[in-house]
Amino acid sequence: MAGFRSLARQVRDSRCDLALRRYSLRKCLERFAPYGHRATWDHLCSRAGFGPEDRSPDPARLVAALDELEEARAVWLAYEVEFAERRRKEKHLGLRRPGAVDDWHRLTWGGFGVAWCDDPRVHPREPLAEVLRRLIAALEREPGAECPVCGGDRLPWKYELDHEPSSGPVCADCGILVPRPVLTPEALAYARRGRLLMSA
């Protein structure tokens, strides 16, 4: 099974058939897809300027999409290295019990679904790397009451998401499933109540 870097080389290789280059970019999303596979693909296509169903996109646009994906992956991998180092130090100090961020992080190891978007057509517009930087910054500070990506405060609780956890606060503005550790207990309670009020 090819890894992310070898797939990325195929996307950039002008000697490869265009269909293989597009396929290789799609396969990269099996290794790293911050919004989930379909939403990340939709995001990359819209940012690079080709349609999700376009079978013959401009090769330069494919490479532009790959560039954005690689930059975001570098941001996330650097965070994972820091995270692993912090956990190693904590364990050395006898702090064995993981916290809320650790529980959340275990579900997103490798970067898949870090900023899950259940609706593949609704996702942040900013570059992926910027979205991940904002999310990481939120994970490293005290919890708040807003979406860490767009600052939106409409976070209705959604159920039956195609992700784990299968329920949680979803930003009504940018579409991400907001990680619970970045929200205060009051914000989480408000999100739950808001969902009940809307269904009444």
From TrEMBL:
UniProt-recorded name of the protein:
Uncharacterized protein
